[in-house]
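A reminder before we start the practical. When you read a complex entry, don't treat the lines as separate problems. The point of joint prediction is that each chain is placed relative to the others, so the output describes one connected object in space. Small molecules and nucleic acid strands, if listed, are placed in the same frame. In the example below there are two entries. Take a minute to note the order of the lines before looking further.
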Amino acid sequence: MSFTQPKENKILEEALVRQFQGGDLEAYDKIAEIYQKKIYGLSFNLTRNQMDAQDVTQEVLLTLFRKIHTFQGKSAFSSWVYRITLNASYMKLRSKKKEPNVSIDELMPSYNGAGFQQEKIQDWSENTESLLFTNETRDVINKAIELLPEKEKVVFLLRDVEGLSTEKAGEILDLTVPAVKSRLHRARLFLRKKLSSYFEEFSSRKVEE
Amino acid sequence: MICCKECLDLLYDYIEGSLDQETTDSLEEHFQECPPCISFMKTYKSTTTICRDTLNQVDVPDAVREALLKVLKENKEHPGEN
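Here is the predicted structure of the whole assembly.
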């Protein structure tokens, strides 16, 4: 099931939540099955650590079990699950020594006084196919995501990786739609810049060969 | 005509398809005159795609899945002990 839930899935899920709130443990198993991969994926992408992602997933699934009676259905059930997942992941991150983030502003595009591009822009968008699943490319992408400041990273993960709508990401993070858009745009610009160095270098390597 | 900086500010909404026709037209007019901005737009779009494809490969390892099942089963039998 994807995050952009088709209507039937949403109805099925709401029914499962109601059944579980009424004491049906099989409904809980189904909810845990539906959400396990999503919780693990999001927490792994935030913490970049398998043990942490496992701990977070366990904690979130147990919280769902214990706190289901506190879920009142004011927002979507999935939003509630994501919020719990994000909080648990942040707890893990805070307990660790933090590497200083790179300043995102330094990597924003620069323009001359008249508002025109100052840097040379190469189009590497056609060259990514053959590189996409190599270990080297994966490492470069993971490293770039890791360097994103937390505020931008979480928006990027919810919106572009998990495929949630801007409105839903805003609901989960308690941000306005313009704030979600602005952080997402900055995240994409930062990542584009980071990936450009790699793909441009790869293109020049190819020319030399 | 709009400049590159304005083009960048409009990029997000352009890709979402949420710009009005007039703004879309002036942006596309800019693209015709400015190949670097076309490259920028294409690589901006590619960034999302390749990051999504890479990060979505995360799967729950079998060992983790089994460990979770065990904990959830114990929790159901003896709630509150984990």
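Discuss with your neighbour: Chain A has a mean pLDDT of 88. What might explain this?
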